[in-house]
TrEMBL record, chains A, B:
It comes from Duganella flavida. GO terms for molecular function: carbohydrate binding; hydrolase activity. Residues 562-664 form the Glycosyl-hydrolase 97 C-terminal oligomerisation domain. InterPro entries: Aldolase_TIM, GH, GH-type_carb-bd, GH97_C, GH97_catalytic, GH97_N, Glycosyl_hydrolase_97. Pfam families: GH97_C, GH97_N, Glyco_hydro_97. Keywords: Hydrolase. This is Glycoside hydrolase family 97 protein. Residues 17-265 form the Glycosyl-hydrolase 97 N-terminal domain. Residues 283-470 form the Glycosyl-hydrolase 97 catalytic domain. Gene3D superfamilies: 2.70.98.10, Aldolase class I (3.20.20.70).
Amino acid sequence: MMLGVYASAAAEVLATVSSPNRAINVAVQLADDGRLAYEIQRNGKPLIATSRLGFLLANAPQMDNGFTLASQAVSEHDDTWEQPWGERRYVRNHYKELRLELVQKALDNRRMALVFRVFDDGVGFRYEFPEQAQLPETRISDELTEFVVAPPAYAWWQQAGEQAALEYAIKKSPLSEVGMANTPLTIRTKDGTHIAFHEAALVDYASMWLRKVEGQKLRAHLTPSAFGPAVQRRGAFTTPWRTMQIADNAAGLYMSDLVLNLNEPNKLGDVTWVHPSKFVGVWWEMHLEKSTWGSGARHGATTANAKRYIDFAAQNGFRGVLVEGWNLGWDGNWSGSGSAFSFTEAYPDFDLAGVSAYAQQKGVRLIGHHETGGNIARYEEQMDAGYQLYAKLGVDSIKSGYVTDAGAALFPGADGAVHFGYTDSQEGSRHYLKAVTEAARYKLAIDTHEPIKDTGLRRTYPNWISREGARGMEYNAWGSPINSVDHEVNLVFTRMLSGPMDYTPGILSLEGVKGRPINSTQAKQLASFVVIYSPVVMAADLIENYEKYPGPFKFIKDVPTDWSDTRVLHGELGEYATIARKDRRSDDWYVGSVTDGNARVLSLPLTFLDPGKRYVAEIYRDGDHADYRTIRRFDIVIEKKNVTSKTVLQLKLAPGGGQAIRFTSQ
Amino acid sequence: MMLGVYASAAAEVLATVSSPNRAINVAVQLADDGRLAYEIQRNGKPLIATSRLGFLLANAPQMDNGFTLASQAVSEHDDTWEQPWGERRYVRNHYKELRLELVQKALDNRRMALVFRVFDDGVGFRYEFPEQAQLPETRISDELTEFVVAPPAYAWWQQAGEQAALEYAIKKSPLSEVGMANTPLTIRTKDGTHIAFHEAALVDYASMWLRKVEGQKLRAHLTPSAFGPAVQRRGAFTTPWRTMQIADNAAGLYMSDLVLNLNEPNKLGDVTWVHPSKFVGVWWEMHLEKSTWGSGARHGATTANAKRYIDFAAQNGFRGVLVEGWNLGWDGNWSGSGSAFSFTEAYPDFDLAGVSAYAQQKGVRLIGHHETGGNIARYEEQMDAGYQLYAKLGVDSIKSGYVTDAGAALFPGADGAVHFGYTDSQEGSRHYLKAVTEAARYKLAIDTHEPIKDTGLRRTYPNWISREGARGMEYNAWGSPINSVDHEVNLVFTRMLSGPMDYTPGILSLEGVKGRPINSTQAKQLASFVVIYSPVVMAADLIENYEKYPGPFKFIKDVPTDWSDTRVLHGELGEYATIARKDRRSDDWYVGSVTDGNARVLSLPLTFLDPGKRYVAEIYRDGDHADYRTIRRFDIVIEKKNVTSKTVLQLKLAPGGGQAIRFTSQ
């Protein structure tokens, strides 16, 4: 006999709240036995069926039944805020909020609040734990939050709970066949409604994975901790927001700012020291096995090689140069507990101060690099010294790395003991954010590789400039296996919903190690600079390859990385995506369009251009016979056209192809 | 970048081992990077594709790569052992064993062994951790063991990781739609091969759930602990056996003794004090809300009511009488941390000593009852006193209960703090076994309700006489909802593969609270006594109902609970099952046959009877118009036939019906 099953299921609706446009309705239910649940309708049809809420605690009776309502309040909020950098300059934040104060009377009036914010483009909700004597410390063993999808749906998802963290290929399957997924998890229901399940403002809490229970019922599964229950907090705290972006189509999902809106405003104040920009560097050559991270005859991070990249950057207008492998620790086993990186000492063949000075003299900035090997304990000991050194040398951004095996990083324990845990864990959320807030003290921007997933914290901490957090271009070097031809179009409506990605596009050579071709045309490489958003973008290919292809390279030089507006013009999950973005510093627009393995002709009305203005369109399109499967993957046509907002272009995309366009205001 | 993904996948076969009949072949692989995997073929066809092995540790680098082989050995074992009680008296234990000693050289020669035992009816394997200075304590955060099913398959499964622990309805779905399942998880592949995934000898370790990763890849998911990583052990230890019972059909699965064979032999010595037997008692009336567990005017556990059941038991040959609710603590909130049970103090209206003495005087034994409300901390304080009291009163078996809400029991912590954890956790495995071994000191048998799942430990501790661990008859009282018509046939080839179940059959009234009918005919109630095995069986209905139906009640009086042999004569997962069992104390055979909602006619050749002997078959069959959906569910025909081993009977089963037969040797 189990009481939870014995309990009657009769429930009453406790409260309801609608989106400002009334299309989305949330109802919160309270069952006879005081269990909480919610459901969501959209346009009068069930979208999320009755879904449970609550927690199992490790240090107190469960927080999922015996609730009564103490108070409820509905309010409306509507403002517009400005991003220091981003896909668009102004973001409207318009929602209705339902706040329910709940009490567990049988547990000495233990309290919890449940807050729903309902936007026209989706729903977010979170739990709030007040300071209370009945629960001075909250140890959460399990979050019971469910998401029961009512209509039949397909899912685009990435597995969770395994070693590669956020670097699995994105799969499509019926939602009922999802196992354990990371978020964002995107679904398309039978009637075409799109939902992206994710979370916002993941701070000092375990990442939420989504576990399929049965049918189309997903449940929160908190990333385990190496230190005990998944979440341990003292005093008052709030959970991250559990978010559902909801739209009529894939384009609508990408246009949603819901996740950013549910994050706290900028806490750093003036962040003009954060510089959206492009960079090149000593990186792809190691992936191609042309040089090594480790020391020796083939060491990539030499003073001479760095200067070669600095010269190239200066010549071509790149602000940054990344040099990986300059510091001691890359020889032998540099991952996990074996890692012995120094964050201040250079190999003898690399003159850090000299290279930094040389760069600045050329108007270029060195981009710092901190590879931790996942040994967070060791990194936290040296982080401050590493930041100080860079700040002293005029470096203003750092790419950090957490290359681990098995997805288990080494966290510092109070007892000095070894603690291997998931980078997605509560301790992971603490470390990654600490690395960012500490960096802010030195006016350093952080671009995290092997990160905890993005939940929109760039709004609050705008020096968290980018992350990896998905299969990047590097897989095309290694071939283990290379990224599929639909990888970019999968990313746009899944991973990219969470925030910027340092994808390292622009491999004009279209090849990995041993000349193995990648699943792309040259035009698609250019289009990726627009489609895959990041304020910091590495043009990743070797200098000699950019010198070999000066035509397409011009687009890479021209394209900015900071935007005043963004519009998704076409998009289908896993098939194609066309995005237009307006340069933050000029009236120029840029368009990128990418397709999967299928050739397509897409009609592109230029209605996004300013009416009445004349533009020159510099078009970088697939050649007529371009095809990612043949040597014709290099076929690219570069042409100019005079256009206005009334022009309709035809985008002809080759199999595995793309198109990039710069619209220069005349 | 994640190293695990970057790693090359080239692998060599390290070792192979076959079943004694050579039908099953296991190959263990070692990849270039020292990762371990196994695969299984049956009759030359892939059954389990390459499946990973290993662990993530919380206090040391992961134990899943960098292995080299130190030694390997193959041996064969064949003996037959005798069960003190069971489905059959003699069990053959015939397997080939492959033992691999493995070393992680880069981790200071850290060692681990991998042991496979391959039987004609399946495979078991386990990991062995030696005592070693490199790993004095092993803290396992994640077991990586995979089971990748090669051919397409359907699964019969029960969800795990949720509040109702082992009491979910059993579902059928494509294996690809399994979320997180408890074990046994039974599958049928496209070519008809049946596999039951389970574990054997779960001792001081977390229960294994099976999580779907993608497609048909299942992975071990260790039940979380309230105290830190899922498993924490000092010194040398072995994991439970990961088992795959493999057969050509469902009947073959049930005939397999693989799980018992992988448990250690009896550690208790003489266990003649363990008494397989039937009982009645003060129980169903509370579920029907005719009386209460708590005190007051409607208290069920009064001296008078107990004596009424004792008289009935004595009159009808039942050895035991269970009385629930006799002890203090049933008033108010008696579950979880609110539970305040006394295990020694009776309510004033119940004379424990007097009732015990009265029972013994009538040749009947009181069955002890320890409801803990899941408050294991409180129970462990009083357990010894509770056992002592019962032993003093001549009680020789105890039904224990762990009714919790949310599946979270309260475990004692070293620090005196509150620790809510899963009953399936490592701490759960310790407590449940401790309750049994401590009981053995008092010669008490334990019948655990809301148990940790059965993994065959009855072989080692034969006083662990039965468990609940699935939806029992009680759901038919509550209606939340009642058990489906195919529940019994689902149980036989899933839950019942793990061991005995205290199912409490025999509800001849065929109704729950408010007269709500249950999904059964009367004949099916009788058949369940044979089909659902338990050495201790409660005839659960009210005395007045047995008095009302003396015809069918005769079978309940006659049927034994201990067997010298068992044969599954028919069986299809979720459809029907016919089982013949031979009485341990006579030459009589009993047959039970149950069906789902479909009527069936099954041919039953009596070849299992001793050739040359004559038998009288007392047949309890569904009436010609019997149907569980109508009032004709009560239609039962009782008739006698003279038969021999050459007779072929036709079993005509009504929708939701069954048939029970006693064959008395003449």
